[in-house]
Amino acid sequence: MMQQKKFTGKVYLKKGQTIHVKIKRLGINGEGIGYYKKKIIFIPGALPKEFVKAKITESNRNYAKAKLLEIVEKSSQRVDPADHYDVGGIELEHLNYDAQLDFKRDVILQALEKFKPRGYEKIELRKTIGMADPYHYRNKAAFQVRMTKTGKLIAGLYKPESHHLVDLPTFETQRKLTLEIIRKTLALMEKWHVCAYDERTNKGTVKTLVVREAFATNEAQLVFVTNERFIAHASEIAAELRNEFPQLVSVMQNYNPGKTPLVYGDETTRIFGRDYIIEELGDVSFKLSARAFFQMNPIQTKKMYDEVKQALNLKQGEILVDAYCGVGTIGLYCGKEAGLVLGMDVVSEAIADAKENAAMSGIKNVVYEEGDAKKIFAKWEKAGQKFDALVVDPPRTGLDDETIEVILRNKPKKFVYVSCNPSTLARDLVTLVSKYDVSYIQPIDMFPQTARTEAVVKLDLRPE
After folding, report:
1. Of 290, 396, 416, 421, which is most buried, counting CB atoms within 10 Å of its CB?
2. How far apart are CA 155 and CA 153, in angstroms?
3. How many CB atoms lie within 10 A of CB 55?
4. CA-CA distance, 184 to 198, in Å (whole number)?
5. Is the backbone of residue 320 left (phi > 0), alpha (psi -120 to 50) or beta?
6. Closest-CA residue to 224 (of 274, 268, 171)
7. For 10-45, how does the pLDDT look when each residue is reduced to its tens digit (9 = 90+)?
Protein backbone atom coordinates (compact mmCIF):
# COMPACT_ATOMS: atom_id res chain seq x y z
CA MET A 1 0.00 0.00 0.00
CA MET A 2 1.39 3.41 -1.00
CA GLN A 3 2.21 5.67 1.97
CA GLN A 4 0.57 9.11 1.82
CA LYS A 5 3.00 12.05 1.92
CA LYS A 6 2.62 14.04 5.11
CA PHE A 7 1.64 17.71 4.60
CA THR A 8 4.35 19.95 6.08
CA GLY A 9 2.56 23.28 5.69
CA LYS A 10 4.96 24.44 2.97
CA VAL A 11 3.52 25.89 -0.22
CA TYR A 12 5.19 24.81 -3.45
CA LEU A 13 4.77 27.16 -6.39
CA LYS A 14 6.21 26.46 -9.82
CA LYS A 15 7.48 29.05 -12.25
CA GLY A 16 4.72 29.65 -14.79
CA GLN A 17 1.96 28.60 -12.39
CA THR A 18 -1.17 30.80 -12.41
CA ILE A 19 -2.67 31.89 -9.09
CA HIS A 20 -5.40 34.24 -7.79
CA VAL A 21 -4.37 36.57 -4.96
CA LYS A 22 -5.95 39.29 -2.81
CA ILE A 23 -3.52 42.23 -2.45
CA LYS A 24 -3.06 43.41 1.13
CA ARG A 25 -0.58 46.28 0.86
CA LEU A 26 2.22 47.88 -1.14
CA GLY A 27 5.88 46.97 -0.60
CA ILE A 28 8.72 49.49 -0.32
CA ASN A 29 9.31 49.29 -4.08
CA GLY A 30 5.64 49.95 -4.89
CA GLU A 31 4.80 46.34 -5.71
CA GLY A 32 1.56 44.72 -4.58
CA ILE A 33 1.91 42.23 -1.73
CA GLY A 34 -0.50 39.37 -1.21
CA TYR A 35 -0.48 35.88 0.30
CA TYR A 36 -1.12 32.55 -1.37
CA LYS A 37 -1.73 29.89 1.29
CA LYS A 38 0.36 32.00 3.70
CA LYS A 39 3.28 32.43 1.28
CA ILE A 40 4.08 36.07 0.51
CA ILE A 41 3.74 37.03 -3.16
CA PHE A 42 5.17 40.20 -4.74
CA ILE A 43 3.23 41.43 -7.78
CA PRO A 44 4.35 44.70 -9.48
CA GLY A 45 1.43 46.75 -10.77
CA ALA A 46 -1.14 45.37 -8.31
CA LEU A 47 -2.78 47.61 -5.71
CA PRO A 48 -4.18 47.03 -2.20
CA LYS A 49 -7.72 45.58 -2.05
CA GLU A 50 -7.46 44.24 -5.59
CA PHE A 51 -8.12 40.59 -6.41
CA VAL A 52 -5.76 39.63 -9.23
CA LYS A 53 -4.72 36.79 -11.46
CA ALA A 54 -0.95 36.43 -11.69
CA LYS A 55 1.73 34.11 -13.10
CA ILE A 56 4.65 32.98 -10.95
CA THR A 57 7.97 34.28 -12.34
CA GLU A 58 10.23 33.32 -9.43
CA SER A 59 9.64 30.91 -6.55
CA ASN A 60 11.73 30.78 -3.39
CA ARG A 61 11.43 29.05 -0.05
CA ASN A 62 9.80 32.00 1.76
CA TYR A 63 8.38 34.14 -1.03
CA ALA A 64 7.49 34.26 -4.70
CA LYS A 65 7.34 36.91 -7.43
CA ALA A 66 4.59 37.03 -10.01
CA LYS A 67 3.52 38.92 -13.12
CA LEU A 68 0.14 40.61 -13.10
CA LEU A 69 -2.12 39.00 -15.70
CA GLU A 70 -5.59 40.29 -14.89
CA ILE A 71 -7.31 42.53 -12.35
CA VAL A 72 -10.43 40.66 -11.30
CA GLU A 73 -11.52 43.25 -8.72
CA LYS A 74 -10.12 46.76 -9.26
CA SER A 75 -9.08 49.27 -6.58
CA SER A 76 -10.94 52.59 -6.45
CA GLN A 77 -7.49 54.23 -6.25
CA ARG A 78 -6.35 52.86 -9.61
CA VAL A 79 -5.97 55.39 -12.44
CA ASP A 80 -5.00 55.10 -16.09
CA PRO A 81 -1.25 55.82 -16.20
CA ALA A 82 0.08 58.55 -18.47
CA ASP A 83 2.86 56.21 -19.64
CA HIS A 84 2.53 52.62 -20.78
CA TYR A 85 6.15 51.49 -20.64
CA ASP A 86 7.62 48.62 -18.65
CA VAL A 87 10.52 50.56 -17.11
CA GLY A 88 11.55 51.87 -13.73
CA GLY A 89 10.76 55.38 -12.55
CA ILE A 90 6.98 55.09 -12.94
CA GLU A 91 6.21 52.24 -10.52
CA LEU A 92 3.22 54.05 -9.00
CA GLU A 93 1.80 55.84 -12.04
CA HIS A 94 -1.30 53.63 -11.86
CA LEU A 95 -2.04 54.83 -8.28
CA ASN A 96 -3.86 58.13 -7.76
CA TYR A 97 -1.63 60.90 -6.46
CA ASP A 98 -3.22 61.37 -3.02
CA ALA A 99 -2.74 57.66 -2.39
CA GLN A 100 0.89 57.92 -3.54
CA LEU A 101 1.50 60.58 -0.89
CA ASP A 102 -0.13 58.39 1.78
CA PHE A 103 2.03 55.43 0.68
CA LYS A 104 5.25 57.43 1.01
CA ARG A 105 4.41 58.43 4.56
CA ASP A 106 3.49 54.81 5.32
CA VAL A 107 6.87 53.53 4.03
CA ILE A 108 8.61 55.67 6.66
CA LEU A 109 6.23 54.39 9.32
CA GLN A 110 6.98 50.79 8.29
CA ALA A 111 10.72 51.45 8.56
CA LEU A 112 10.33 52.93 12.04
CA GLU A 113 8.25 49.93 13.15
CA LYS A 114 10.89 47.56 11.77
CA PHE A 115 13.97 49.15 13.39
CA LYS A 116 12.16 50.53 16.48
CA PRO A 117 14.41 53.45 17.47
CA ARG A 118 13.69 54.51 21.03
CA GLY A 119 10.47 56.50 21.26
CA TYR A 120 9.48 55.80 17.65
CA GLU A 121 5.79 55.40 18.58
CA LYS A 122 5.65 59.06 19.66
CA ILE A 123 7.50 60.59 16.68
CA GLU A 124 5.42 63.16 14.81
CA LEU A 125 5.26 61.83 11.26
CA ARG A 126 3.72 64.55 9.14
CA LYS A 127 1.74 64.29 5.91
CA THR A 128 3.79 64.10 2.72
CA ILE A 129 4.39 67.39 0.90
CA GLY A 130 3.36 66.78 -2.71
CA MET A 131 3.20 68.66 -6.02
CA ALA A 132 0.34 70.52 -7.67
CA ASP A 133 1.39 68.93 -11.00
CA PRO A 134 3.25 65.65 -10.36
CA TYR A 135 4.58 65.40 -13.94
CA HIS A 136 7.33 67.01 -16.07
CA TYR A 137 9.45 67.57 -12.97
CA ARG A 138 12.72 65.79 -13.80
CA ASN A 139 15.53 68.16 -14.72
CA LYS A 140 17.72 65.32 -15.99
CA ALA A 141 17.51 62.25 -18.20
CA ALA A 142 20.22 59.60 -18.59
CA PHE A 143 19.06 57.37 -21.44
CA GLN A 144 21.05 54.39 -22.68
CA VAL A 145 21.64 54.31 -26.45
CA ARG A 146 21.59 51.11 -28.51
CA MET A 147 21.03 50.00 -32.11
CA THR A 148 18.17 47.64 -32.94
CA LYS A 149 18.51 44.66 -35.27
CA THR A 150 16.99 46.79 -38.03
CA GLY A 151 19.73 49.42 -37.63
CA LYS A 152 17.63 52.04 -35.83
CA LEU A 153 19.09 53.96 -32.88
CA ILE A 154 16.96 54.02 -29.74
CA ALA A 155 17.38 55.68 -26.33
CA GLY A 156 15.65 54.94 -23.09
CA LEU A 157 15.67 52.80 -19.96
CA TYR A 158 15.92 49.08 -19.28
CA LYS A 159 12.99 46.85 -18.44
CA PRO A 160 13.15 45.90 -14.75
CA GLU A 161 15.68 43.16 -13.96
CA SER A 162 16.81 42.92 -17.59
CA HIS A 163 19.09 44.41 -20.22
CA HIS A 164 16.26 44.88 -22.69
CA LEU A 165 16.26 48.57 -23.61
CA VAL A 166 12.88 50.28 -24.00
CA ASP A 167 12.83 53.22 -26.41
CA LEU A 168 11.26 56.29 -24.78
CA PRO A 169 10.13 58.89 -27.33
CA THR A 170 7.78 60.15 -24.61
CA PHE A 171 8.03 59.98 -20.82
CA GLU A 172 5.69 62.14 -18.79
CA THR A 173 7.94 62.77 -15.80
CA GLN A 174 10.58 64.28 -18.12
CA ARG A 175 10.63 67.78 -19.59
CA LYS A 176 9.59 68.27 -23.21
CA LEU A 177 12.87 69.97 -24.17
CA THR A 178 14.93 67.13 -22.70
CA LEU A 179 13.18 64.54 -24.85
CA GLU A 180 13.35 66.73 -27.96
CA ILE A 181 17.14 67.11 -27.57
CA ILE A 182 17.58 63.35 -27.16
CA ARG A 183 15.42 62.56 -30.22
CA LYS A 184 17.26 65.08 -32.40
CA THR A 185 20.63 63.78 -31.20
CA LEU A 186 19.67 60.24 -32.22
CA ALA A 187 18.67 61.51 -35.67
CA LEU A 188 21.98 63.33 -36.07
CA MET A 189 23.93 60.29 -34.92
CA GLU A 190 22.21 58.31 -37.66
CA LYS A 191 22.87 61.08 -40.19
CA TRP A 192 26.60 61.20 -39.37
CA HIS A 193 26.92 57.42 -38.85
CA VAL A 194 27.92 57.61 -35.19
CA CYS A 195 27.79 54.11 -33.69
CA ALA A 196 25.99 53.16 -30.52
CA TYR A 197 27.74 51.01 -27.94
CA ASP A 198 27.20 47.24 -28.17
CA GLU A 199 27.36 45.46 -24.81
CA ARG A 200 27.92 42.03 -26.37
CA THR A 201 31.02 43.02 -28.35
CA ASN A 202 32.10 45.86 -26.05
CA LYS A 203 32.48 48.01 -29.17
CA GLY A 204 30.84 51.17 -30.46
CA THR A 205 30.92 54.80 -29.40
CA VAL A 206 27.93 56.30 -27.57
CA LYS A 207 26.68 54.51 -24.45
CA THR A 208 24.42 57.09 -22.86
CA LEU A 209 22.89 60.48 -23.60
CA VAL A 210 22.49 62.69 -20.54
CA VAL A 211 20.47 65.91 -20.76
CA ARG A 212 20.03 68.29 -17.85
CA GLU A 213 17.79 71.38 -17.85
CA ALA A 214 17.82 74.38 -15.53
CA PHE A 215 14.27 75.38 -14.61
CA ALA A 216 15.09 78.98 -13.67
CA THR A 217 17.31 79.89 -16.66
CA ASN A 218 16.02 77.38 -19.29
CA GLU A 219 19.62 76.44 -20.06
CA ALA A 220 20.33 72.86 -21.13
CA GLN A 221 23.38 70.62 -21.27
CA LEU A 222 23.96 67.46 -23.31
CA VAL A 223 26.60 64.90 -22.35
CA PHE A 224 27.71 62.08 -24.63
CA VAL A 225 28.93 59.22 -22.44
CA THR A 226 31.22 57.20 -24.67
CA ASN A 227 33.11 53.94 -24.88
CA GLU A 228 35.68 55.55 -27.21
CA ARG A 229 37.61 58.80 -26.95
CA PHE A 230 36.70 59.98 -30.45
CA ILE A 231 33.17 60.91 -31.59
CA ALA A 232 32.95 61.22 -35.36
CA HIS A 233 31.54 64.58 -36.51
CA ALA A 234 31.00 65.75 -32.92
CA SER A 235 31.39 69.43 -33.85
CA GLU A 236 28.90 69.15 -36.74
CA ILE A 237 26.35 67.42 -34.50
CA ALA A 238 26.80 70.07 -31.79
CA ALA A 239 26.39 72.89 -34.32
CA GLU A 240 23.14 71.44 -35.71
CA LEU A 241 21.79 70.89 -32.20
CA ARG A 242 22.63 74.46 -31.23
CA ASN A 243 20.85 75.81 -34.31
CA GLU A 244 17.66 73.97 -33.34
CA PHE A 245 17.91 74.46 -29.57
CA PRO A 246 19.28 77.88 -28.50
CA GLN A 247 18.75 76.75 -24.88
CA LEU A 248 21.55 74.20 -25.35
CA VAL A 249 24.55 76.10 -24.00
CA SER A 250 26.78 73.13 -23.17
CA VAL A 251 27.70 69.95 -25.07
CA MET A 252 30.16 67.67 -23.30
CA GLN A 253 31.77 64.24 -23.68
CA ASN A 254 32.41 61.87 -20.79
CA TYR A 255 34.79 58.98 -21.48
CA ASN A 256 33.67 55.80 -19.71
CA PRO A 257 35.12 52.77 -21.53
CA GLY A 258 34.19 49.13 -21.11
CA LYS A 259 31.48 47.32 -19.21
CA THR A 260 30.63 49.15 -16.00
CA PRO A 261 27.46 49.84 -13.99
CA LEU A 262 28.54 53.48 -13.53
CA VAL A 263 27.08 56.08 -15.87
CA TYR A 264 30.11 58.36 -15.80
CA GLY A 265 33.84 57.87 -16.12
CA ASP A 266 36.46 60.20 -14.65
CA GLU A 267 37.32 62.15 -17.82
CA THR A 268 35.01 64.90 -19.12
CA THR A 269 35.81 67.24 -22.03
CA ARG A 270 33.93 70.04 -23.76
CA ILE A 271 32.64 69.74 -27.33
CA PHE A 272 30.75 73.03 -27.50
CA GLY A 273 29.81 76.02 -25.33
CA ARG A 274 30.31 76.17 -21.58
CA ASP A 275 31.31 73.45 -19.11
CA TYR A 276 28.19 74.14 -17.06
CA ILE A 277 24.63 75.42 -16.90
CA ILE A 278 23.23 77.76 -14.25
CA GLU A 279 20.27 76.91 -12.03
CA GLU A 280 18.69 79.08 -9.33
CA LEU A 281 16.92 78.32 -6.07
CA GLY A 282 15.47 81.42 -4.47
CA ASP A 283 18.16 84.09 -4.70
CA VAL A 284 21.07 81.62 -4.88
CA SER A 285 22.64 80.65 -8.22
CA PHE A 286 24.24 77.27 -8.86
CA LYS A 287 26.77 76.39 -11.54
CA LEU A 288 26.27 72.75 -12.55
CA SER A 289 29.03 70.85 -14.34
CA ALA A 290 28.33 67.54 -16.07
CA ARG A 291 28.98 65.22 -13.11
CA ALA A 292 27.87 67.55 -10.31
CA PHE A 293 24.99 66.26 -8.21
CA PHE A 294 21.86 68.40 -8.05
CA GLN A 295 18.40 67.36 -6.93
CA MET A 296 16.28 66.07 -9.83
CA ASN A 297 13.16 68.06 -8.94
CA PRO A 298 13.90 71.78 -8.49
CA ILE A 299 10.30 72.63 -7.55
CA GLN A 300 10.28 70.20 -4.62
CA THR A 301 13.91 70.93 -3.80
CA LYS A 302 13.01 74.49 -2.86
CA LYS A 303 10.19 73.21 -0.62
CA MET A 304 12.58 70.74 0.99
CA TYR A 305 15.27 73.34 1.61
CA ASP A 306 12.68 75.69 3.08
CA GLU A 307 11.84 72.86 5.52
CA VAL A 308 15.55 72.41 6.33
CA LYS A 309 15.98 76.14 6.85
CA GLN A 310 12.99 76.29 9.19
CA ALA A 311 14.18 73.25 11.16
CA LEU A 312 17.71 74.67 11.57
CA ASN A 313 16.49 78.12 12.56
CA LEU A 314 20.04 79.48 12.41
CA LYS A 315 21.07 82.52 14.40
CA GLN A 316 23.79 85.02 13.61
CA GLY A 317 27.25 83.76 14.40
CA GLU A 318 26.34 80.07 14.52
CA ILE A 319 28.57 77.60 12.65
CA LEU A 320 26.81 75.16 10.30
CA VAL A 321 28.35 71.98 8.89
CA ASP A 322 26.88 70.91 5.53
CA ALA A 323 27.96 67.27 5.21
CA TYR A 324 27.64 65.61 1.77
CA CYS A 325 27.32 69.16 0.43
CA GLY A 326 27.44 68.43 -3.31
CA VAL A 327 27.53 71.75 -5.17
CA GLY A 328 26.72 73.54 -1.91
CA THR A 329 22.95 73.70 -2.34
CA ILE A 330 21.73 73.26 1.24
CA GLY A 331 24.45 75.27 2.94
CA LEU A 332 24.21 78.17 0.51
CA TYR A 333 20.41 78.22 0.61
CA CYS A 334 20.04 77.84 4.36
CA GLY A 335 23.24 79.27 5.82
CA LYS A 336 23.15 82.97 5.03
CA GLU A 337 22.34 83.79 8.65
CA ALA A 338 25.18 81.60 9.95
CA GLY A 339 28.55 82.95 10.96
CA LEU A 340 30.26 80.20 8.97
CA VAL A 341 29.24 77.26 6.76
CA LEU A 342 31.64 74.32 6.49
CA GLY A 343 30.96 71.94 3.59
CA MET A 344 32.47 68.64 2.46
CA ASP A 345 32.03 66.19 -0.42
CA VAL A 346 34.02 63.39 -2.05
CA VAL A 347 33.49 64.64 -5.63
CA SER A 348 36.16 67.17 -6.57
CA GLU A 349 34.04 68.76 -9.34
CA ALA A 350 31.20 69.28 -6.85
CA ILE A 351 33.51 71.09 -4.41
CA ALA A 352 34.85 73.27 -7.24
CA ASP A 353 31.27 74.09 -8.23
CA ALA A 354 30.31 74.81 -4.61
CA LYS A 355 33.10 77.37 -4.32
CA GLU A 356 32.07 79.02 -7.59
CA ASN A 357 28.40 78.97 -6.59
CA ALA A 358 29.22 80.79 -3.36
CA ALA A 359 31.26 83.40 -5.24
CA MET A 360 28.58 83.80 -7.92
CA SER A 361 25.94 84.59 -5.28
CA GLY A 362 28.28 86.80 -3.26
CA ILE A 363 28.23 84.45 -0.25
CA LYS A 364 31.51 84.68 1.66
CA ASN A 365 30.84 82.82 4.93
CA VAL A 366 31.62 79.38 3.45
CA VAL A 367 34.58 77.00 3.46
CA TYR A 368 34.56 73.79 1.37
CA GLU A 369 36.83 70.76 1.54
CA GLU A 370 37.06 67.69 -0.65
CA GLY A 371 37.05 64.35 1.12
CA ASP A 372 35.09 61.62 2.85
CA ALA A 373 32.77 62.90 5.60
CA LYS A 374 34.29 60.83 8.41
CA LYS A 375 37.86 61.87 7.46
CA ILE A 376 37.02 65.57 7.19
CA PHE A 377 35.12 65.43 10.48
CA ALA A 378 38.15 63.80 12.12
CA LYS A 379 40.43 66.49 10.69
CA TRP A 380 38.24 69.32 11.98
CA GLU A 381 37.85 67.62 15.34
CA LYS A 382 41.64 67.32 15.70
CA ALA A 383 41.99 71.02 14.85
CA GLY A 384 39.49 71.89 17.60
CA GLN A 385 36.81 73.09 15.18
CA LYS A 386 33.42 73.28 16.90
CA PHE A 387 30.04 73.65 15.23
CA ASP A 388 26.56 74.60 16.44
CA ALA A 389 24.43 73.10 13.70
CA LEU A 390 24.64 70.17 11.34
CA VAL A 391 22.76 69.11 8.22
CA VAL A 392 23.46 65.73 6.63
CA ASP A 393 22.14 64.63 3.25
CA PRO A 394 23.77 61.21 2.84
CA PRO A 395 23.41 58.76 -0.06
CA ARG A 396 20.90 55.92 0.11
CA THR A 397 23.32 53.89 2.24
CA GLY A 398 22.80 56.41 5.06
CA LEU A 399 25.42 57.48 7.60
CA ASP A 400 28.44 55.28 8.31
CA ASP A 401 29.28 54.31 11.89
CA GLU A 402 32.30 56.63 12.13
CA THR A 403 30.28 59.68 11.08
CA ILE A 404 27.57 58.85 13.62
CA GLU A 405 30.26 58.55 16.32
CA VAL A 406 31.63 62.00 15.43
CA ILE A 407 28.13 63.50 15.58
CA LEU A 408 27.45 61.96 18.99
CA ARG A 409 30.82 63.15 20.32
CA ASN A 410 30.40 66.73 19.10
CA LYS A 411 26.67 66.92 19.92
CA PRO A 412 25.62 69.87 17.72
CA LYS A 413 22.60 71.57 19.28
CA LYS A 414 20.81 71.78 15.95
CA PHE A 415 20.73 68.71 13.73
CA VAL A 416 18.75 68.05 10.54
CA TYR A 417 18.91 64.75 8.67
CA VAL A 418 17.76 64.80 5.03
CA SER A 419 16.96 61.23 4.04
CA CYS A 420 16.38 59.59 0.66
CA ASN A 421 15.97 56.10 2.13
CA PRO A 422 13.50 55.39 4.99
CA SER A 423 15.21 52.10 5.89
CA THR A 424 18.68 53.55 6.45
CA LEU A 425 17.13 56.57 8.18
CA ALA A 426 15.31 54.36 10.69
CA ARG A 427 18.48 52.28 11.17
CA ASP A 428 20.59 55.40 11.85
CA LEU A 429 18.01 56.77 14.28
CA VAL A 430 18.47 53.68 16.48
CA THR A 431 21.92 55.01 17.39
CA LEU A 432 21.28 58.75 17.10
CA VAL A 433 18.42 58.72 19.61
CA SER A 434 20.91 57.80 22.33
CA LYS A 435 21.51 61.57 22.59
CA TYR A 436 18.83 63.13 20.40
CA ASP A 437 15.04 63.24 20.37
CA VAL A 438 13.29 63.22 17.01
CA SER A 439 11.14 66.35 16.98
CA TYR A 440 9.35 65.39 13.74
CA ILE A 441 9.74 63.75 10.34
CA GLN A 442 8.48 65.66 7.30
CA PRO A 443 8.13 63.43 4.19
CA ILE A 444 8.53 65.18 0.83
CA ASP A 445 7.63 63.70 -2.54
CA MET A 446 10.66 64.47 -4.69
CA PHE A 447 9.84 61.75 -7.23
CA PRO A 448 6.11 61.53 -8.05
CA GLN A 449 5.00 58.33 -9.81
CA THR A 450 7.88 56.41 -8.18
CA ALA A 451 8.11 54.50 -4.90
CA ARG A 452 10.94 56.71 -3.63
CA THR A 453 10.40 59.12 -0.76
CA GLU A 454 12.55 61.70 0.98
CA ALA A 455 12.20 63.28 4.38
CA VAL A 456 13.50 66.13 6.51
CA VAL A 457 14.10 65.03 10.09
CA LYS A 458 14.55 67.53 12.94
CA LEU A 459 16.56 66.18 15.87
CA ASP A 460 16.83 67.93 19.24
CA LEU A 461 19.80 67.37 21.55
CA ARG A 462 18.62 66.12 24.93
CA PRO A 463 19.92 67.97 28.01
CA GLU A 464 22.49 65.93 29.90
Report:
1. 416
2. 7
3. 15
4. 21
5. beta
6. 268
7. 678 999 999 999 999 999 999 999 999 999 999 999
List, for residues 167-223, the tens digit of each pLDDT value.
Answer: 999 999 999 999 999 999 999 999 999 999 999 999 999 999 999 999 999 999 999
CA–CA distances in Å: residue 460 to residues 128, 145, 429, 441, 457:
21, 48, 12, 12, 10
Question: Using CA atoms, how far apart are residues 21 and 46, in angstroms rounded to an integer?
Answer: 10
In the sheet that holds 267-273, the strands lie side by side as: 165-167, 153-158, 140-147, 206-213, 220-226, 248-255, 267-273
Active site residues: 420
List the beta strands (DSSP E) in 266-339: 267-273, 276-281, 284-289, 319-323
* Residue among 433, 460, 330 nearest 117 (CA): 433
Q: What angle do CA 346, 457, 142 make, to 5 degrees?
A: 45
Helix H or strand E encompassing 54: strand 51-59
How, if at all, do strands 366-370 and 389-392 pair? unpaired
Torsion angle of C-alpha atoms 81, 64, 158, 258, degrees rounded to 10: 160
